[in-house]
Each structure stands twice: as C-alpha cells, then as structure tokens.
Design goal:
By secondary structure, the chain is of the alpha+beta class. It folds into three domains: 7-108; 116-178, SH3 type barrels (Roll), CATH 2.30.30.60; 182-281, Alpha-Beta Plaits (2-Layer Sandwich), CATH 3.30.70.260. The chain is 49% helix and 23% strand. It contains eight helices and eleven strands. The strands form three sheets. Strands 6-5-4-3-7 form a five-stranded antiparallel sheet. The chain is elongated, with a radius of gyration of 33 Å. The termini are far apart.
C-alpha cells in the first residue's frame, strides 16, 4: 500500500519548508495579482485620463489614486502576511504564532509613533484654540499661508490665495501667525505741501487700486490721520488686504502715488506700515508706564 508523505517528512530542525515556501509564493502572487485585478475592475474609469470633460478627468484621477494606494498596500500586506505565515506555518510549536503576532505588534507600534505625535500635537492645538476653521494663518517655519479649511488631530488643510490646497502634519507646526479678522491692515503715510492735493492723491489712488475679496477689501482708502506740521501736512490712509496680498499697499500703491504726483506735492514719503488698532492699544498700554517714568 502506497502512503503519502506526511508533513513531518518536509520538516527539518523544526522548520516546515513546504509550508514556508507555499506562504512566500502566495504572498508574492497576492502582491502581483491584486494591483492588476484592481486595474481591471477600474479600467472604465481609467480611460478618462485624457478626457476633456472635467468630471470624467477627476474620476480618472481618483481611480489612479485608488490603484496607487492598492498597489502600495498590497506590497505591505504581502510582507506582513509572509512574516506571519512563516512564523505560523513554517515553525512548529505553540510559541511560533505568538512570536509572529508580537513581532507584528512591535512593527505597527514603531510605525505608529509618528501618528501618535501628530494626534498629541493636534489635541494641544485644538485645546489651546490656536486658530479656527476660516482663519487666515501662516505656519512657521515653512511660511505656508492660507485659509484654514479643515482641522483634524492628524493634520491641517489650508487653501492658498492661488487656489492650491496645502496639508501639514500637526507635529511640524512649530508656530502659527493668525491674521486678526482674517485680514491685514496697512497704512500709507506721506508729508505733502498742500493738504487738499494730498487728499486728492489718495482719492485717485483708491480709484486705481483693484478692490474685491482678493485685492483691496474696501472700496477706497480711508484717511485716518491729518496733522499740520509747520508748512507740511502729514496724511495717513489705511486699507485692508487679504494675507499674502500685502504687496498691493507695501509697494504697488507707493509706486502709483509717486507716478500720480506730477506736481511734486509729496515732500517726504510715501511709506507703508502695518496698522492694527488692537496692537496699537496693547503697545500703548505697555509703553505708557515707561513714558510716565521718563517724565
């Protein structure tokens, strides 16, 4: 009578080489076949890669993303399955499975350290109310500026003025600058020989500056200060722009004023600086005691 060889026949030094080989082959086949099966199932959507239709092209991009993720996960899954299979089937003994699971837990725990740091940092950011959804912020030291669209315990999503989206892990936010009310207020100051002509220059400048949500947020510059100093008049006008568009009042408006001044009314300036009523009050409160002492 012919008897088939038992599993012990292929076991040497406590290692079942047949079981180990089968597990490794299955893991490799899974890593190769799963991505191809995914591509076959999503082939219809992938055809829209070169489509001119925006929705069709977007669906094709999502399908591409899904295929890329499945391809990457299948490799990792094959590696993990191979390791567990080797310990579960390749090595005989009750402790082999426990050893394989322990090794897997150690690997997952080591890989999860970054996620845990993000969660802890995100919890502190939310608890301390660094910013809220809709705030205009700048994340340091990366100089990432934009409007906060989403906050999670893992990351923060920003939308820049150019429409691009940006994401950053919470553990990498070393500092945040938050624009008050989501805007930047700037003042333009100059000394003129004629107050009426100086005001007219600011009026003409307001007409030339583009206004709107992405430009000058008010329809015109508001003259906030007018002071007579000898034969000259100091004029200051304020305007608001979105964060990232400070150049409109820092340089562009200054150059326009110089071009508009064909009569040479401006004697000194113009110069621009940030103007914030809350900051001015806080600085005045901190400087006032020192001024009293000096007097």
């Amino acid at each position: 009578m012919i008897s088939l060889p038992g599993s012990d026949t292929f076991t040497s030094n406590g290692v079942n080489w047949i079981a180990m080989g089968v597990v490794i082959v299955l893991a490799i086949l899974g890593a190769i076949l799963i991505p191809r099966l995914t591509v076959a199932l999503m082939s219809r959507r992938l055809r829209g890669r070169r489509s001119t239709d925006v929705d069709e092209h977007r669906r094709a991009k999502r399908a591409d993303t899904t295929v890329a993720v499945v391809r990457s996960l299948s490799r990792y899954a094959a590696i993990v399955a191979g390791i567990l299979g080797v310990f579960a089937f390749g090595f005989t003994g009750a402790g082999s499975t426990v050893l394989g699971v322990s090794l897997l837990i150690a690997i997952v725990g080591f890989a999860a350290q970054s996620v845990l740091r993000d969660v802890i940092a995100g919890t502190m950011v939310v608890a301390e109310r660094w910013f809220d959804v809709g705030d205009a912020i700048t994340i340091e030291p990366w100089a990432m500026s934009g409007i906060v669209e989403a906050i999670t315990l893992r990351s923060v999503k920003l939308r820049g003025l150019g429409g691009e989206t940006m994401r950053i892990h919470n553990q990498h936010m070393y500092g945040v600058r938050v624009a008050r009310n989501g805007i930047r207020e700037l003042a333009i100051e100059m000394y003129v020989s004629d107050a009426d002509k100086g005001r007219e220059l600011f009026r003409r400048l307001s007409e030339l500056l583009p206004s709107g949500p992405m430009h000058l947020l008010s329809t015109a510059l508001q003259i906030t200060e007018e002071q007579q100093i000898g034969t000259l008049t100091r004029l200051a006008a304020e305007g608001s722009v979105p964060p990232g568009r400070e150049w409109m009042l820092e340089s562009f408006a200054i150059n326009l004023l110089k071009e508009l001044d064909t009569e040479g009314v401006i004697k000194h300036g113009p110069v621009s600086y940030f103007a914030d009523s809350v900051a001015e009050q806080r600085f005045a409160r901190s400087v006032a005691p020192q001024l009293d002492i000096d007097q």
